[in-house]
Every structure is written in C-alpha cells, then in structure tokens.
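Good morning C.,

I know you're traveling, so I'll keep this short. The sequence:
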Amino acid sequence: MTKFEAMQSWTEWKLVPVSSIQGRLQSVRPLREEEHEQYELTKDQATGEHYVHYSYMHRNIGAIGTSGQDEIFHQLLPVSSDDVLGILFGEQPYTYPEHWRTSFLRNGPEGEYVWFDPSYVEEEQQYEAVGRTIVDELARFKEQGDLSEEALQRLLDRLLPGDDKK
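The tokens, ready to paste straight into the viewer:
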C-alpha cells in the first residue's frame, strides 16, 4: 500500500483489502450485541470517517460445499458526523438491512471488501409491484370475457396511464 493509499478514503476504492481495514479501523463504541450479530460505531483513523460496523455469524449446518464451519461476515456503512451524533444519542436508526439505503462495504471470500449498492432492491420491489398489477389486471380482463377492441384499449389505458401514443 502506498503512502497515498494509506491516507485515501475507502469511498474512493473499488476493492478495500482487509489488511487496510484491520490497520485503520478503530472501534468507537459498541452499539448492540446479540447472539449471532453485533453493531459498533467505528472510525477510520487515517481519514476520520465513521462507519457502522455490522457483523453476523452465518451457521453452515450441513450445507453442500461447505466445511460445516460457521462464517462471520462484516459490513461497513459510512455515516456522516450528524448521523454519528444521532446514533450515539439513540435518535438515528442503524440496523441492517432496513436502514442501509446507501452503498456500503461488505467482505467477500477473497479477503477484500467490496462496495455494495442496495438501491437495486428498491427498484426490484417496484418492478415486482408493476408485474403483480399487470397479472391482476389481466386476470380481471379474462374474467369479464369482453375481448373487444374497446375492452382491450381500456385495459391498456389502465396499464399504461399517460401513454398518448393512440
């Protein structure tokens, strides 16, 4: 690691070696600890940036292709100074996954952390809702039994509101 990399924010990196995280990340305060997961507020000593560190244990119970050993996964959510204060005073929620809406670091099997963008999950949910709406409208259309051109146009108008390509 170069001297420049040692001072650079991880937000500028595509992959962050575990050695960099181990060398720079310092615990500020434990937030919550349960049997299989824990949260703590951490700080990058090189940049002063704060992260919520979430770790959880995954139990491999007879899973195919595993040694049967438990695995511990780590994720780091960057948080602003205002968020740090809110978390410390118990006013800012921080639990995963419901409050992790921005990109965060998560460890992988290759000994590096990678950035993960959870925004696709929200988009995926929106697409699923549109799909359910289409299925419901088609079922209603079939039940009504009216297969005329006018009935089909009404169906399309419901499915494609604001589409003025008539």
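Safe travels,
E.
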